[in-house]
Amino acid sequence: MNTITTRRKVVPVAENGDTADKQDQLLLSAAICNGEDLGSFVRKVFASGKPETLLLHLKRFSKSKESEIEDVCRAHYQDFITAVDDLRSLLSDVDSLKSSLSNSNSKLQNVAVPLLTSLDSYVEARNKCGNITLAINSLNTCVRLMELCSRANSHLAENNFYLALRCLDSIETDFQDQVPSTTLKRMVEKQIPAIRAHIERQVNKEFGDWLVEIRTVSRNLGQLAIGQASAGRQREEELRMKQREAEEQSRLSLRDCVYALEEEEEDGDEIDGVIDGGNGGNGILGFDLTPLYKAYHIHQTLGLGDRFRQYYFENRKLQLTSDFQVSSMTPFLESHQTFFAQIAGFFIVEDRVLRTGGGLIKKMEVENLWDTAVMKMCSVLEDQFSRMQTANHLLLIKDYVSLLGVTLRRFGYPIDALLDVLSKHRDKYHELLLSDCRKQMAEALAADKFEQMYMKKEYEYSMNVLSFQIQTSNIMPAFPYVAPFSSTVPDCCRIVRSFIEDSVSFMSHGGQLEFYDVVKKYLDRLLTEVLDGALLKVINNSIGGVTQAMQMAANMAVFERAFDFFFRHAAQLSGIPLRIAERAKRQFPLIKARGAAEETLSGLLKQKVDGFLTLMENVNWVADEPPQGGNEYANEVIIFLETLISTAQQILPVQVLKRIMKDVLSHISEMIIGALLGESVKRFNVNAIMGLDVDVRLLESFAENQASLLSETDASQLKSALIESRQMVNLLLSNHPENFLNPVIRERSYSALDYRKVVTISEKLRDQSDRLFGSFGTRGAKQNPKKKSLDTLIKRLKDAN
Hints:
The chain is mainly alpha-helical. The chain has helices spanning 20-33, 39-48, 51-157, 161-175, 182-203, 205-248, 254-275, 290-301, 305-323, 332-356, 363-387, 391-409, 416-424, 426-447, 458-464, 488-507, 516-541, 546-573, 578-581, 591-613, 632-648, 654-677, 686-704, 712-720, 723-733, 743-749, 755-764, 774-777, 785-800, and strands at 454-455, 481-482. Keywords: Cytoplasm, Exocytosis, Transport.
């Protein structure tokens, strides 16, 4: 907005000497135009007694301005009318423009929609066409490949091996990387090597018939020999079990040992019978060396013995090399028995040829073949063991390899390298076993509701209690029986027992006679790392109530009884006398979990107690008389503790219950001291302290009454948990509190008190005479000796600080 600056107007003075009336009008008009004050004109006319003259001048001035006003209004009104006309014209143009745009948009929509629909249809049709073209090309490739495969099969059926190989080469060259079907490609990749191997066997038919037959016989022979070694091991295990039972019952006899020696002799006779076939070597499996010996004799007759020996050795070496191939299409867990049985049968046959072949093969050549086989088996085991992530799979292969070693050792083959590979992967097996146990324990703990187990039948008691020797009495209880532990205990015990048995199974028959220390080391890890860690995790994350925490603490005590069973069981399975295993005193491995369980239970109980201790807000700290039966909070706390004791003593061991109750009583004592130190208590008198004395005596009486459940010593230890509050009350009620400064008396009677707390609390103690208006009646009286002693104590402690 533009501001209009008014200029001061000056009325010209008349030159012709107008009248005074005309002069006054001109002055008035100039004053109004200049915005001056008209007060002087008003005073002047009233002073002269002629106000009508002023009114007349004003009317004239207003009339003289009316024409100017009309001119200004006329000029501005005309501009306004012109602007309104312009706006109306503009509005009309805008409406016409809007209508034109709407019509243009409608026309554009009508024209573009069909075009866009056609474009979408075209794109979709083009994509379909591309897909169909790609599918046709893929099908053409597959058809041409199948035609080649069919042609190759026809050539094989007609024994046209050259043409068949050409087809295979054409498949590999033209279609190996262009086959669109994954299944078809995998079939081609699998069948091409098999077809070539088949052609190679057919080309070498002069000697191939016997080689094919001996390979099948070798595999079956190896499986049977290893099976008999397994049966012999099973009989040994049964004999050891009988010997362990006899050791436990102190009835070990010499007859059992003789029986074991006879079993060993029978095992050797049976294995010899498998391959014993008289002169020709015919045995149970039709193991016949006659065709081989005939061919060798004919070549010797013709003077081609060396050539045949070389030919035989090369072919047998090739057979052994082919036996080393591990199929990538079949898991090694499924094929390992066939793999090792084939090798075992091969060397059983070579041992017989070496002894009865008349120089057909040399001992050095057999040893070289065996060294090659050992290196390959070790390589395969290293590779397969490094890939395995399941302990049970590794154990199955280890057991079969150890049986292979037992079998071939009887034929004089050294197996130390194989046993070294098994020992090398001992740590990995146990790590996998620990990992499996960790998962199983986590599942067992997650499924537990932390409620006492309910057993209806005797077999349940035997399965869950007696089998782990965690019973508290040798007397069979009445059924149904409610155990003091939850399902976590037997479930975890079963996992630990299974771990021990699997560990011993892996360590057995591995060339190491004494392996109890190794089993014990991993058992310690299982208990201290896996079980303790799993329990600790559950305690920290899943325990939410007093009942669950109490059950967990009870479980810890039962685990402590099962702990000895675990190591005795490991010693028995390892063949170690129990007296040697029991000599070593071991620390309880679940210390962290036990401490966390008791700490969690104590914490939850403290929370419950804190709820009752809030009633301390109702204590009258300046009471006129001490409460007779103790304060309300103390009675409520004692009722809660008595209820807790009656419930906890059913499942918690005495020492665990004592530790927890001592912690709770110590917390109560700290809370009493904390109340006296708190800002909510500004002051208190002797009557309030006497009330606290009654409360502490009630709590001490509760602790002493537990002697029937615990013992006199344990009850005294419970009572000692209240020592801080007891000594503080005794100090405040003492007639000579300054004795606290005496080191001897303080060590004997106030050893649990902190002098800083003593100063803070003592300053709040007020005598009865210190009440409001109490000084009027006692002014000039002699000061209370106890008060004087207390003031001296406070002053001395402050100075010392």
